[in-house]
Amino acid sequence: MHRVYFIGAGPGDPELLTLQGARLLAGCRAVFAPTPYEVTFASFLEGKTVEIPFAFYFQELLDRIGELLAVGDVAFLVPGDLTFYSPFQALVDALGDRAAVIPGVGTANAASARLKKTLDLPGVCNRAIITSPRTLGDGEGAPTLRELAAPGVTLLIYMNNLPLPELVRQLRDGYGGNVPLVLAHRLGLPGEELIRGTLDDIVGKTGGRDYFNLGSPTRRPALTLVLVGETLEATVDGAWWDFRRKHIWEERDEG
Ligand SMILES: C[S@@+](CC[C@H](N)C(=O)[O-])C[C@H]1O[C@@H](n2cnc3c(N)ncnc32)[C@H](O)[C@@H]1O
């Protein structure tokens, strides 16, 4: 039975494809690659049938997958991977046993690495929340970022659709003061930018540039991840390491 592999492709740089993803991709005759993956992964796609998944309505897409499966394995390059904010769940469900999901490097992982910061830190941050104002909704009674933001929280905000001054206003209400914020734009892609600032100065640092495509006639979310919280600027000494060494890892006389 031929299969459809939903391969976590990472944020865009093919160097972040896993070895398993690369091996399975090599064995597929047809690949659905959302823009810009058909460009950034071009060297992996030579000789294959390449299609853009969002050019199809759902049933058309299932029909097309059916045609392609008759002659070989099929791959979808999944931005980041399926874990968060992936539009491919309905396909995975419809394909049942024919679908296989391959993990990849999520945008959150790539951002953490780029910043060289763990996104929780004992004594600084005790929880991280992954969210998007787009999926929180904007109806009456819908929760707001204001309600999620709080001291001790690192927020990872995907697909932001709030104007930056409004986003900052909501976050300041929640945090109750100024905290570090980073706009991670086009991670792992040409034009990558990291704009580091705080709630107080980030609007000025963007120089009015629209990092969220809010002024664009299309409703397509921009490739910008917003990270907020004290952990982005915090540093630690070795005290926690030594605490763990002493209380968890030190050889003990079990008798
Ligand atoms: C539909 S979600 C896909 C998330 C993906 N499943 C993941 O695990 O990273 C799209 C959102 O992810 C973030 N994103 C995806 N790729 C990105 C990149 N290369 N750089 C920065 N943010 C990115 C942006 O917030 C964008 O609006």
UniProtKB/TrEMBL annotation:
CDD domains: TP_methylase (cd11724). Residues 3-202 form the Tetrapyrrole methylase domain. SUPFAM superfamilies: Tetrapyrrole methylase. Pfam families: TP_methylase (PF00590). InterPro entries: 4pyrrol_Mease, 4pyrrol_Methylase_sf, 4pyrrole_Mease_sub1, 4pyrrole_Mease_sub2, Siro_Cobalamin_biosynth, Uropor_MeTrfase_CS. GO terms for molecular function: methyltransferase activity. One of its GO terms (biological process) is methylation. Keywords: Methyltransferase, S-adenosyl-L-methionine, Transferase. Belongs to the precorrin methyltransferase family. PANTHER family: COBALT-PRECORRIN-4 C(11)-METHYLTRANSFERASE, SIROHEME SYNTHASE-RELATED. This is Precorrin-4 methylase.
